[in-house]
User: Fold this.
Amino acid sequence: VRGGPMENAPRVSVGLLGADYTVENGAYRISNIVEGGVWDSDARGPLSMPGVDVHEGDYLLAVDGTPMNMAMDPWAAFVGKGNEVVELTVSAIPTMDDTARKVLVKTLTSESNLRYRQWIESNRAMVEKASGGRVGYVYVPDTGQNGRNNLFRQFYGQAHMDALIIDERWNGGGQFPNLSLIHI
Assistant:
């Protein structure tokens, strides 16, 4: 059952950096940079791209030259800037002075894929640490084409390991699950 004709509200993109913020010393501080899958160029966060001089602990002072408004959420500075190149002013201190750096980054319109890849990488790191580097980890999100692509993309980089954990928790379905492993 559907609701029938509905009005659609206008949509405005919001630029996202793949970062978490805290408020410290009267400014927004970058507390966590979500790297995503650093081994995969299409799965990296804007702040973890090569050459981007932004670090965890830096303060976000301005976006496109406009100082951050501490009365609003940090995302307010990125309204209408989704999937666009923006100029960030960042610094190790919460003050706009000569030590502040200007950095160009291309924002995201969604962080879901980035945070998903970060989750996979944290699982992989946990397995690597617990096994002393002897066991690999592969996450298979579904058993359709996307899942098989993810399986092969992760598998060959770890095929030399003594063992692999193939994680299919929360698998979204698709074709028969054993079909993914038949061709390996």
Q: What stands out?
A: DSSP finds three helices and eight strands in the chain. The CA atoms of residues 31 and 102 lie 19 Å apart.
